[in-house]
Amino acid sequence: MIKILLLITIGFALFVAAFMGTIIFGNSNTTNNSSILIKDNSLRYEKIDRNGKKNKRSFSLTQLDKYLRKHKEIDIIDNLILYKKDIDKASNANNLHLKDENGKTYSLKELANQDINKYNEVCGFLEKISDKDDLELDFRLKRYVSEYNNLILINQNIKNLKQLYNKETDIEIKEKTKETINKLDECKEKMNIIQKDEQLRKLNDYYIKMLIEIIENYEILNKQDNNSIQTTQSKEKIISIFNLINPVFDSLYLKEENVFDNLEAQVNSLQDLANQSNQLLKEIKQK
Questions:
Q1: What does the pLDDT look like over 52-74, one tens digit per residue?
Q2: pTM of the entire predicted model
Q3: Euclidean distance between the first and final Cα of the chain, in Å?
Q4: Which residues contact 231 (CB under 8 A, 6 or more apart)?
Protein backbone atom coordinates (compact mmCIF):
# COMPACT_ATOMS: atom_id res chain seq x y z
CA MET A 1 0.00 0.00 0.00
CA ILE A 2 2.82 2.35 0.89
CA LYS A 3 4.51 1.64 -2.47
CA ILE A 4 1.30 2.45 -4.35
CA LEU A 5 0.89 5.74 -2.49
CA LEU A 6 4.53 6.56 -3.21
CA LEU A 7 4.08 5.94 -6.97
CA ILE A 8 0.91 8.06 -7.00
CA THR A 9 2.77 10.89 -5.22
CA ILE A 10 5.68 10.77 -7.70
CA GLY A 11 3.31 10.70 -10.66
CA PHE A 12 1.37 13.68 -9.34
CA ALA A 13 4.60 15.62 -8.77
CA LEU A 14 5.72 14.99 -12.36
CA PHE A 15 2.32 16.12 -13.65
CA VAL A 16 2.51 19.34 -11.63
CA ALA A 17 6.04 20.03 -12.89
CA ALA A 18 4.98 19.55 -16.52
CA PHE A 19 1.89 21.71 -15.97
CA MET A 20 3.92 24.53 -14.39
CA GLY A 21 6.41 24.35 -17.27
CA THR A 22 3.55 24.87 -19.72
CA ILE A 23 2.31 27.86 -17.76
CA ILE A 24 5.74 29.45 -17.56
CA PHE A 25 6.87 28.84 -21.14
CA GLY A 26 3.59 28.88 -22.99
CA ASN A 27 3.02 26.68 -26.04
CA SER A 28 6.47 25.17 -26.41
CA ASN A 29 8.07 21.81 -27.07
CA THR A 30 11.38 20.66 -28.45
CA THR A 31 11.80 18.76 -31.69
CA ASN A 32 14.22 15.88 -32.22
CA ASN A 33 16.91 18.44 -33.01
CA SER A 34 18.31 19.97 -29.84
CA SER A 35 18.84 23.39 -31.44
CA ILE A 36 15.14 23.83 -32.28
CA LEU A 37 12.62 25.16 -29.81
CA ILE A 38 8.95 25.54 -30.66
CA LYS A 39 7.92 28.62 -28.73
CA ASP A 40 5.44 31.34 -29.58
CA ASN A 41 7.03 34.50 -31.05
CA SER A 42 10.54 33.13 -30.64
CA LEU A 43 13.09 31.14 -32.63
CA ARG A 44 16.25 29.36 -31.57
CA TYR A 45 19.10 28.30 -33.83
CA GLU A 46 22.85 27.72 -33.94
CA LYS A 47 25.32 30.28 -35.21
CA ILE A 48 28.97 29.56 -35.91
CA ASP A 49 31.36 32.24 -34.65
CA ARG A 50 34.68 33.29 -36.20
CA ASN A 51 36.48 30.52 -34.33
CA GLY A 52 34.18 27.86 -35.75
CA LYS A 53 32.35 27.34 -32.46
CA LYS A 54 28.60 26.71 -32.54
CA ASN A 55 26.55 28.95 -30.26
CA LYS A 56 22.84 28.64 -29.57
CA ARG A 57 20.95 31.88 -30.13
CA SER A 58 17.34 32.86 -29.65
CA PHE A 59 15.49 36.00 -30.67
CA SER A 60 12.03 37.53 -30.52
CA LEU A 61 9.61 37.40 -33.45
CA THR A 62 7.28 40.05 -32.00
CA GLN A 63 8.14 42.76 -34.53
CA LEU A 64 8.26 40.35 -37.47
CA ASP A 65 4.91 38.87 -36.40
CA LYS A 66 3.37 42.35 -36.59
CA TYR A 67 4.79 42.78 -40.09
CA LEU A 68 3.40 39.44 -41.29
CA ARG A 69 -0.04 40.11 -39.80
CA LYS A 70 -0.13 43.33 -41.83
CA HIS A 71 1.65 42.32 -45.06
CA LYS A 72 0.96 38.53 -45.05
CA GLU A 73 4.44 37.63 -46.34
CA ILE A 74 8.00 38.85 -46.73
CA ASP A 75 10.79 38.11 -49.23
CA ILE A 76 13.90 36.69 -47.58
CA ILE A 77 17.18 35.03 -48.60
CA ASP A 78 17.62 32.46 -51.39
CA ASN A 79 14.48 33.69 -53.17
CA LEU A 80 12.33 32.30 -50.36
CA ILE A 81 9.07 33.84 -49.16
CA LEU A 82 8.19 33.69 -45.46
CA TYR A 83 4.55 33.66 -44.33
CA LYS A 84 2.33 32.42 -41.52
CA LYS A 85 0.23 29.35 -42.23
CA ASP A 86 -2.37 30.59 -39.76
CA ILE A 87 -2.32 34.38 -39.72
CA ASP A 88 -4.23 34.57 -36.42
CA LYS A 89 -1.86 32.33 -34.50
CA ALA A 90 1.49 33.31 -33.02
CA SER A 91 4.70 33.01 -35.04
CA ASN A 92 6.85 29.98 -34.24
CA ALA A 93 8.77 27.25 -36.06
CA ASN A 94 5.54 25.36 -36.75
CA ASN A 95 3.39 28.25 -37.96
CA LEU A 96 6.07 30.07 -39.99
CA HIS A 97 6.26 28.60 -43.47
CA LEU A 98 8.52 29.11 -46.47
CA LYS A 99 7.71 29.02 -50.18
CA ASP A 100 10.53 28.46 -52.67
CA GLU A 101 10.87 29.38 -56.35
CA ASN A 102 9.12 26.18 -57.41
CA GLY A 103 6.10 26.82 -55.21
CA LYS A 104 7.03 24.15 -52.66
CA THR A 105 6.03 25.06 -49.10
CA TYR A 106 7.27 23.78 -45.73
CA SER A 107 7.48 24.96 -42.13
CA LEU A 108 10.66 26.10 -40.42
CA LYS A 109 10.46 23.00 -38.26
CA GLU A 110 10.34 20.80 -41.38
CA LEU A 111 13.29 22.71 -42.83
CA ALA A 112 15.26 22.11 -39.63
CA ASN A 113 14.61 18.38 -39.85
CA GLN A 114 15.62 18.27 -43.54
CA ASP A 115 18.49 20.78 -43.71
CA ILE A 116 19.67 22.20 -40.39
CA ASN A 117 22.31 24.39 -42.07
CA LYS A 118 19.71 26.10 -44.25
CA TYR A 119 17.46 26.50 -41.21
CA ASN A 120 20.31 28.24 -39.36
CA GLU A 121 20.91 30.54 -42.34
CA VAL A 122 17.23 31.50 -42.52
CA CYS A 123 17.10 32.14 -38.77
CA GLY A 124 20.29 34.19 -38.95
CA PHE A 125 18.66 36.45 -41.51
CA LEU A 126 15.39 36.67 -39.58
CA GLU A 127 17.31 37.71 -36.48
CA LYS A 128 19.04 40.41 -38.54
CA ILE A 129 15.70 41.97 -39.46
CA SER A 130 13.78 41.01 -36.30
CA ASP A 131 13.95 44.51 -34.79
CA LYS A 132 13.20 46.44 -37.99
CA ASP A 133 9.92 48.33 -38.30
CA ASP A 134 7.70 48.52 -41.39
CA LEU A 135 9.30 51.68 -42.70
CA GLU A 136 12.84 50.36 -42.55
CA LEU A 137 11.88 47.03 -44.11
CA ASP A 138 10.01 48.78 -46.91
CA PHE A 139 13.09 50.82 -47.82
CA ARG A 140 15.99 48.50 -46.97
CA LEU A 141 14.74 44.92 -47.18
CA LYS A 142 16.31 44.27 -50.61
CA ARG A 143 19.67 45.47 -49.33
CA TYR A 144 19.44 43.27 -46.23
CA VAL A 145 18.57 40.26 -48.40
CA SER A 146 21.41 41.00 -50.82
CA GLU A 147 23.94 41.40 -48.02
CA TYR A 148 22.95 38.16 -46.34
CA ASN A 149 22.92 36.19 -49.60
CA ASN A 150 26.45 37.43 -50.20
CA LEU A 151 27.42 36.47 -46.66
CA ILE A 152 26.23 32.89 -47.25
CA LEU A 153 28.29 32.67 -50.45
CA ILE A 154 31.35 34.12 -48.70
CA ASN A 155 31.13 31.65 -45.82
CA GLN A 156 30.89 28.70 -48.20
CA ASN A 157 33.84 29.90 -50.28
CA ILE A 158 35.93 30.51 -47.15
CA LYS A 159 35.19 26.99 -45.99
CA ASN A 160 36.19 25.48 -49.36
CA LEU A 161 39.30 27.64 -49.70
CA LYS A 162 40.46 26.72 -46.20
CA GLN A 163 40.15 23.05 -47.10
CA LEU A 164 42.27 23.65 -50.21
CA TYR A 165 44.77 25.71 -48.20
CA ASN A 166 45.26 22.91 -45.69
CA LYS A 167 45.90 20.37 -48.46
CA GLU A 168 47.92 22.64 -50.78
CA THR A 169 51.58 21.77 -51.24
CA ASP A 170 52.59 24.53 -53.66
CA ILE A 171 53.84 27.51 -51.64
CA GLU A 172 52.80 30.19 -54.15
CA ILE A 173 49.27 28.89 -54.57
CA LYS A 174 49.01 28.42 -50.80
CA GLU A 175 49.98 32.06 -50.18
CA LYS A 176 47.55 33.35 -52.81
CA THR A 177 44.77 31.18 -51.35
CA LYS A 178 45.42 32.63 -47.90
CA GLU A 179 45.27 36.14 -49.35
CA THR A 180 41.86 35.43 -50.90
CA ILE A 181 40.58 34.00 -47.60
CA ASN A 182 41.71 37.17 -45.82
CA LYS A 183 39.97 39.33 -48.43
CA LEU A 184 36.74 37.38 -47.92
CA ASP A 185 37.00 37.70 -44.14
CA GLU A 186 37.44 41.44 -44.58
CA CYS A 187 34.27 41.56 -46.69
CA LYS A 188 32.35 39.97 -43.84
CA GLU A 189 33.58 42.65 -41.46
CA LYS A 190 32.86 45.51 -43.88
CA MET A 191 29.64 44.23 -45.42
CA ASN A 192 27.72 47.37 -44.46
CA ILE A 193 30.05 49.69 -46.40
CA ILE A 194 30.37 47.65 -49.61
CA GLN A 195 29.22 49.78 -52.53
CA LYS A 196 28.87 47.05 -55.15
CA ASP A 197 26.66 44.21 -53.91
CA GLU A 198 26.12 42.70 -57.35
CA GLN A 199 29.82 42.57 -58.11
CA LEU A 200 30.45 40.88 -54.75
CA ARG A 201 27.75 38.31 -55.57
CA LYS A 202 29.19 37.55 -58.99
CA LEU A 203 32.71 37.41 -57.61
CA ASN A 204 31.69 34.76 -55.07
CA ASP A 205 29.04 32.90 -57.01
CA TYR A 206 31.02 32.61 -60.23
CA TYR A 207 34.69 33.58 -60.27
CA ILE A 208 35.82 32.20 -56.91
CA LYS A 209 33.81 29.02 -57.39
CA MET A 210 35.49 28.61 -60.78
CA LEU A 211 38.89 29.24 -59.20
CA ILE A 212 38.23 26.60 -56.53
CA GLU A 213 37.33 24.05 -59.20
CA ILE A 214 40.48 24.83 -61.18
CA ILE A 215 42.69 24.51 -58.08
CA GLU A 216 41.09 21.18 -57.18
CA ASN A 217 41.81 19.88 -60.68
CA TYR A 218 45.36 21.24 -60.55
CA GLU A 219 46.03 19.35 -57.32
CA ILE A 220 45.08 16.10 -59.00
CA LEU A 221 47.27 16.90 -62.01
CA ASN A 222 50.15 17.88 -59.75
CA LYS A 223 50.01 14.58 -57.89
CA GLN A 224 50.17 12.70 -61.18
CA ASP A 225 53.12 14.60 -62.60
CA ASN A 226 54.29 17.82 -61.00
CA ASN A 227 57.02 18.36 -63.59
CA SER A 228 54.89 18.21 -66.72
CA ILE A 229 54.52 21.22 -69.02
CA GLN A 230 50.75 21.12 -68.59
CA THR A 231 51.03 21.24 -64.80
CA THR A 232 53.49 24.14 -64.91
CA GLN A 233 51.29 26.10 -67.30
CA SER A 234 48.22 25.41 -65.17
CA LYS A 235 49.98 26.77 -62.10
CA GLU A 236 51.00 29.95 -63.93
CA LYS A 237 47.42 30.50 -65.06
CA ILE A 238 46.07 29.91 -61.55
CA ILE A 239 48.43 32.54 -60.16
CA SER A 240 47.28 34.95 -62.86
CA ILE A 241 43.64 34.33 -61.85
CA PHE A 242 44.46 35.11 -58.23
CA ASN A 243 46.12 38.33 -59.43
CA LEU A 244 42.92 39.26 -61.25
CA ILE A 245 40.52 38.35 -58.44
CA ASN A 246 42.24 39.58 -55.27
CA PRO A 247 42.55 43.27 -56.28
CA VAL A 248 38.80 43.37 -57.02
CA PHE A 249 37.98 43.13 -53.32
CA ASP A 250 39.50 46.52 -52.50
CA SER A 251 37.42 48.20 -55.22
CA LEU A 252 34.17 46.95 -53.66
CA TYR A 253 34.35 49.64 -50.99
CA LEU A 254 34.85 52.48 -53.49
CA LYS A 255 32.21 54.18 -55.62
CA GLU A 256 34.37 55.21 -58.56
CA GLU A 257 37.40 52.96 -58.93
CA ASN A 258 36.44 49.71 -60.62
CA VAL A 259 38.90 46.94 -61.47
CA PHE A 260 36.07 44.44 -61.86
CA ASP A 261 36.06 45.21 -65.60
CA ASN A 262 39.55 43.73 -65.87
CA LEU A 263 38.25 40.48 -64.44
CA GLU A 264 35.17 40.50 -66.67
CA ALA A 265 37.35 41.00 -69.74
CA GLN A 266 39.14 37.74 -68.93
CA VAL A 267 36.02 35.65 -68.39
CA ASN A 268 36.44 33.66 -71.60
CA SER A 269 40.05 32.86 -70.73
CA LEU A 270 39.04 31.73 -67.26
CA GLN A 271 36.29 29.54 -68.62
CA ASP A 272 38.69 28.04 -71.17
CA LEU A 273 41.13 27.22 -68.38
CA ALA A 274 38.37 25.57 -66.37
CA ASN A 275 37.37 23.50 -69.40
CA GLN A 276 40.99 22.56 -70.10
CA SER A 277 41.58 21.42 -66.52
CA ASN A 278 38.41 19.32 -66.62
CA GLN A 279 39.49 17.76 -69.92
CA LEU A 280 42.95 16.93 -68.58
CA LEU A 281 41.34 15.36 -65.56
CA LYS A 282 39.18 13.14 -67.75
CA GLU A 283 42.20 12.06 -69.78
CA ILE A 284 44.08 11.10 -66.62
CA LYS A 285 41.16 9.03 -65.33
CA GLN A 286 40.94 7.18 -68.66
CA LYS A 287 44.59 6.08 -68.52
A1: 778 899 999 999 999 999 999 99
A2: 0.79
A3: 82
A4: 218, 221, 222, 224, 225
